[in-house]
Design brief:
heterodimer; A: about 475 residues; Amidase signature (AS) enzymes; 11-stranded mixed β-sheet; B: 2 strands
Chain lengths: ~475, ~90
């Protein structure tokens, strides 16, 4: 039995039938991590002792016949999700030694199902970036070509799934941070509807945009993990009371008659030809399955990247004000006064990209600039929502490329403006608070994965999983050669 | 628009950050390019409707005030320099 290549749903059966024990399963993944983490740098912290302890507990639950959906399933967790007693660094020097005194709500939910946590995965510092190269501790490599980036900010989670160093992982997505690395690493990732998953214990970047979601081998597995992390949480004032359905309930159902929107602007200049061609081939397959393709427009797309960065950085500058070197986090030893302690701790602890975004956020919120930038970005948020609402009056889902290029070499994207513009295909989803997933739809001439995004109506994750699964059934993924 | 050093210094001050002269000059160049990208939003003439957001979007679902056990002091202080169950900061009064 090749355990590492199994899907979560098959692992469930194997565990419940006692074909494999949780300990064997956990050992298999810890061994993969041991063999590959020096090369790929997916994990910042590997929690092997904890994993073995949790494996034993999970086995007892299974033996009693009380297993839940994820009991005994090994998972990796992005290092911006608070894990009680386990370092949570956000890939930042400022949180290098931070040990949370409490669990994020998603961890409480996963622990209540007796998952096995393998470790904490690398990311761009404070989730600010699309390459995982701003991580202070582990600059993750792409399993398909270790000279290329895995994407980001959840690059450690996506690369770990692709390299079979975990069967699934949690990431977070503020402007594409689950979907873009999933596309770059040839795996599937879902950003749920804003408010679906509690943000309590997710280290805040941009509170009106952040959302936790799963990355796995395919959309069905993503749905299984999503089932276990959603639901109302009184600790998060933006958490939704919406009923949580079984997100896998539509898997395998026909998509005949479904209306799939293609906004022309997502297929314009600036998107690589090989990506357009792969996504359009998938469109042909959907047509062959009986779906109706509807061409449409999203004129506001040209303003989406600046609107996103103005909103995200304005919120980030406020959220990051809490790092003062006093209550937790890096504390300088070079300060003589209170003011100096704060300034020096922050200046030593934050990396370059984080500092850039603090400056931009302060600029957007400053007197004299607030109306021209921040308020205009809020107006654009409303316009983008309106345009999606108009599309969803006539269509069931929207289909776009996930990224304008495949994974690149770090030096090819050292200019911040170029890096920001690369988020063009993903940011509107966060701005509008919609659910979306990215799933592989091909490989370029060099064998690098290409992802397509399926965007759904609010709270309609089940349909995007259904549509993605319909395509995945006929798609054969190519594993990275490691 | 070219962002001048004084503006970058002002933004850094607001963010409680300090930069060397070389870093400041580099940040000014980077911020000039970034603001040029942000200026795209000025091309469109639309107005933000705060009332619409209040109706349509933001959930502000506050809990009832219920007394519950809080984190233990030792847990709150576990990541800080502390003494006698207090956070320690440099002297702030003369």
């Amino acid at each position: 039995m090749n355990v590492s290549s199994m899907k979560i749903r098959d692992m469930r059966k194997a565990l419940d039938n006692k074909d494999i024990s949780v300990k064997e399963l956990t050992n298999e993944y810890l061994s993969n991590i041991n063999n590959l983490n020096d090369k790929l740098e997916c994990y910042i912290t590997v929690t092997d002792d904890l994993a073995m302890k949790q494996a034993e507990e999970a086995q007892n639950v299974i033996n009693k016949g009380e297993a839940k959906s994820l009991t005994g399933i090994p998972l990796a967790i992005k290092d911006n999700i608070c894990t009680e007693g386990v370092k949570t660094t956000c890939a930042s020097k400022i949180l290098e030694n931070f040990i949370p005194p409490y669990n994020a709500t998603v961890m409480e939910k996963l622990n209540s199902e007796n998952i096995v946590m393998l470790g904490k995965t690398s990311m761009d510092e404070f989730a600010m970036g699309g390459s995982t190269q701003t991580s202070a501790f582990a600059k993750t490599k792409n399993p398909y070509n270790t000279e290329c980036v895995p994407g980001g900010s959840s690059g450690g989670s996506a690369a770990a799934v692709a390299a079979e160093m975990c069967p699934a992982a949690l990431g977070s997505d503020t402007g594409g941070s689950i979907r873009q690395p999933s596309a770059f690493c040839g795996v599937t990732g879902i950003k749920p509807t804003y408010s679906r998953v509690s943000r309590y214990g997710l280290v805040a970047f941009a509170s009106s945009l952040d959302q936790i979601g799963p990355i796995a081998k395919d959309s069905h597995d993503c749905g299984i993990v999503l089932n276990s992390i959603c639901g109302y949480d009184p600790h998060d004032g933006t958490s939704s009371h919406e009923v949580v359905p079984d997100f896998t309930s539509k898997v395998g159902k026909s998509i005949k008659g479904m209306r799939i929107a293609l906004p022309a602007e997502f297929f314009a200049d600036g998107i690589d030809d090989e990506i357009k061609s792969s996504v359009l081939k998938a469109v042909d397959e959907y047509k062959a399955m009986g779906a109706e393709i509807v061409e449409c427009k999203m004129p506001s797309l040209k303003y989406a990247v600046p609107a996103y960065y103005l909103l995200a950085c304005a919120e980030a500058t406020s959220n990051l004000a809490r790092y003062d070197g006093i209550k937790y986090g890096l504390r300088t030893d070079k300060a003589d006064s209170y003011e100096e302690l704060i300034i020096k701790s922050r200046s030593e602890g934050f990396g370059d990209e984080v500092k850039r975004r603090i400056l931009l956020g302060n600029y957007a919120l400053s007197s004299g600039y607030y109306d021209a930038y921040y308020r205009k970005a809020l107006a654009l948020r409303q316009l983008i929502r309106q345009e999606y609402n108009a599309i969803f009056e006539k269509c069931d889902v929207v289909l776009t490329p996930t990224t304008p290029t495949v994974a690149y070499r770090p030096n090819d994207m050292s200019d911040p403006v170029k890096m920001y513009q690369a988020d063009i295909c993903t940011v509107t989803v966060n701005i509008a608070g919609l659910p979306a997933l990215s799933t592989p739809c091909g490989y370029d001439k060099n064998g690098m994965p290409i992802g397509m995004s399926i965007i759904g109506k609010k709270f309609d994750e089940a349909t995007i999983i259904q549509v993605a699964d319909a395509y995945e059934q006929g798609f054969t993924p190519v594993a990275p050669k490691l | 628009m070219k962002m001048d050093l004084e503006m970058v210094k002002y933004l850094a001050e607001l963010g409680k950050l300090e930069f060397s002269d070389d870093e400041l000059s580099k940040k000014a160049d980077e911020m000039t390019d970034i603001i040029n990208l942000m200026d795209t939003v000025k091309e469109i003439d639309i107005t933000y409707d705060a009332l619409k957001d209040n109706h349509d979007v933001y959930i502000n679902d506050l809990r009832e005030d219920v007394a519950k056990e809080s984190l233990a002091t030792s847990k709150v202080l576990q990541n800080a320099v502390n003494s006698n169950n207090c956070f320690v900061v440099p002297k702030v009064v003369e």
